[in-house]
Amino acid sequence: MAAGEQKAGKGIGVRLPRKEDERFMRGRGSYVGDIKMPGLADVAFLRSPLAHGRIVSVTAPDELAGRFFTAADIAASVKPIRAVSGLPGFKPSSQPALADGKVRFTGELVAMCLGRTRAEAEDAVAQVVAEIEPLPPLADFAVAEQPDAIRVHEEWSDNIYLETRIEKGDRSRIDGAAIEVEREIRLSRQCMVPLEGKGTIAWWDTRLDQLVVYTSTQLPHMMRTGLAECLGLEERQVHVVAPDVGGGFGFKCVLQPEELCVAWLALTRKKPFRWIEDRREHLVAAANTREHHYRIKAFADAEGRLLGIEADVAVDVGAYSVWPFSACLESAQIASILPGPYQMPFYACRTRSVATNKPPFMPYRGVARTGVCFALELMIDAIARQAGLEPADVRLKNLVLPEQMPFTNITGKLFDSGDYPESVRRAVETIDLASFRARQREGSDDGRLLGIGFATYCEQAAHGTTVYAAWGIPMVPGFEQATARVTPDGGLELRIGVHSHGQGMETSMAQVANQVLGIDTDRINVVHGDTALTPYSTGTWGSRSMVMAGGAVSRACEIIRERALAIGAHLLQTGKDEVELVGGRIQGQGGSVGFADIAQAWYKSPETLPADVAPEGLEVTAGYKPMVDSGTFSYATHAAVVAVDPDFGSVEILDYVVVEDGGTLVNPLIVDGQIIGGVAQGIGTALYEESPYSADGQPLASTFVDYIIPGPCEVPDIRIVHMETPSPFTAHGIKGVGEGGAIAPPAAIANAVNDALRPLGAEVAMTPVTPHRLLAAIAAGRNGRQPVQS
Question: What is the pLDDT of residue 765?
Answer without folding.
Answer: 98
